[in-house]
Design a protein that fits this description.
Length: 115
Amino acid sequence: MSPPDSRLFIWLFTYNFRRKKVEKSSEIAGRTRVVEVTSKAAGVGSMDDTTVGTSADPTTTKFQESTLWDALDEYFDLSRRAVLTALAVRFGSAAVLAYWLIKRVRRRRQRLAKL
């Protein structure tokens, strides 16, 4: 299970990607058409003449496959950036906290040395 800060950064970085994906999915769904498949045309004996299936436009099928890989590439690139940003924020926070603690300890030592 990943830490909450990493999950938050991944969610933030991929938010627009997911929104665009939903829009593209609805756009692609609008391009698909319902075709009636008969048992003779399908070449399957167990199907009856009333079987209905969906078919994408043949010219967009290869386009959809290539955009799938591009989308996965983009998603994993965004996820990688989010994880690296989360690690940088963690490291920066730890460095600031360490600096503050060291400064505080030095002040206390100086006060105790004056007494």
